[in-house]
Design goal:
Elements lengths: L1 E4 L2 E4 L20 E4 L2 E4 L32 H4 L4 E11 L8 E11 L4 E6 L10 E7 L20 E4 L2 E8 L1 H9 L15 H9 L16 H9 L11 H8 L3 E9 L8 E9 L4 E6 L12 E6 L8 E2 L2 E2 L16 E3 L4 E7 L1 H10 L33 H9 L10 H6 L4 E9 L8 H5 L2 E6 L4 E6 L14 E7 L20 E4 L2 E8 L1 H9 L9 H11 L4 H8 L6 H10 L6 H11 L3 H8 L5
Antiparallel strand pairs: 1-2, 3-4, 5-6, 5-10, 6-7, 7-8, 9-10, 11-12, 11-18, 12-13, 13-14, 15-16, 17-18, 19-20, 19-24, 20-21, 21-22, 23-24
Amino acid sequence: MVLDVGDVAIPMLPGMTFVDPRAPVQRRAQSLAYINGYAVPGERATGLKPTVHAPPPAPEQLKETALPMSTLPKFVAFDRKVLRWNCYFKESVTESAIENHRVRKCTIYMYLEDESVHVEEPRQPNSGIPQGVFLKRHVVPKDNEGGVFGPADISVGSTVTMYGRTFFVVSCDGFTREYLTGALGLSVAPDGTFPDDPIDGHRATLKKDTVGNPYPPAPRDDVLAAYIEAAAGKPSNALAPDKLKKFLANDRKVLRFFAVWDDRGALYGEKRPFVVHYYLADDSVEVLEVSEPNSGRDPFPVFLRRQPLPNKPLEVDALGPTKSTTTYTHKDFLVGQYIKVYNRDFYLYDADNFTKAWYVQNEGMSAADFPEIDIEEKALPIPQNAVPPYNGFGGLDDSLQNCIALIPKPIAPDFHKQMDYARTILRYKAKIAPGDQYELSDIDAERDFILSVYLANDTIAIYEPPDRKRNIPAHITGGKFLERQAVLKPGSSEKYEAHDLYAGAVVNVFRRNFVLTEADEYSYQFMEEHPASFPRSDFDQVLLRIRAQLEGKETEVVRAFAGKAVTEQSLTAALDACGVEYVKQELVTVLRKIAGSGDAWCAALGFNKA
């Protein structure tokens, strides 16, 4: 497609179009003009034909008007603004000796937005007259010449005739008076009153003087009156107390008590809370259940529906009840007492504030008659299943899972411990020692072992290095002596952990005692770096224990070590001579700290040379 602009042909492509200034103006001009807020048709101006404007009028041609020029239409300026007048008209009444006319009170409404009028007569109960809208809303004609009623045509103290009905205007409201006097500049007469209605005067003569001459007299409600009426032949059912009077006096007055029913003496019985309602209007009783969470019971609210509650068992025979029944009254409901709900003992332990105030006001009770009773019982400890002793099959944790659940779950390991000590292994040199359940042979006494402790899961493995130089039979080739596993302490379900092993400790592994003689350098350094877990590698604590046992023997210690080299044999002999209790791990800790110096050892103990 090609755009033909004059003598130049331009293709219709993006960026190749332009606005031709020679093209005629084709937009539509505004066709409405606004005069005094109203839109009226005006002349349409186009670009094809120039608009001819009339010359402005001369100043002497302009006429002044008293009407203000509003910028809003009338239906907007006077929206929801209504004038109201109170009026009446008289309606003749025939064939009546009481009245010859009736005064009908009405209200005239005029809506300023379109000056429409409607007349309404307020409804009176039991009047027998159709009342309500007397004249529907519309523009009411004033005469036959096309005039209509406006605000100035209705005034207080005058009459208004609409469709042959004459209304006498009595008064108007404050907005109407202000609008007529302010906006329109009219004078409005003061408000008047409605005339007396003849029927109202007749009804006033029919009223009795109940103050000066009360009739009939107030009835007596006592025993003497009941006796006289019964002697006069009044039926016995009419002599019963006035239930209506009691109902009107106590309607919606309910006494509420909190109770418990302890049925734990029966099979599958339990202690259950309830709420007891006593209705003062008819002396009936209602018992409601209190739903507790996780009780296992359906939330059924009503335990006993509202009814009179007998206070003693009903005795019956083949002919029916043998005696009349009596029911509970409000005097039988006391806090701290029992009531029987069809042979069930309910203990009343509390009441609400309204119930307490009612008893204090009507029965003369005091706050002491409502003691605070605590019915809560201490929760019994939940019995725990006894774990059977370990039978030796499988791992200890695996066997425990079979006792906890029907379908055992895998044991969750200590993730942090495995990550921190994944490759941390403490190694000790060990030898077999004699025990109560194992007799040590000469061959076993010569054997050496390496006991490894894996800190990731506290398992132990024992390895026997092969050594042909010693006097060991050929069938003992060495190698793996104990597979890596958890080793339990004798007579206990606890397993050996890293802090239980140290140089000089005795470890019982499947009824064989192993004495740990020494550890490698890595193990000593690791234990010294973690003194909280390995107290025998803590030099300060070891020093405190030894110093406490050497009190009073400072001279012997200084004489034995001052200026001399300290070795394991000399330190062992000196401590044994002083009666100090120690283990080999503590000796190693001391020797590694003082570096074999006797003076350093005395200075660490705080013993000075004499």
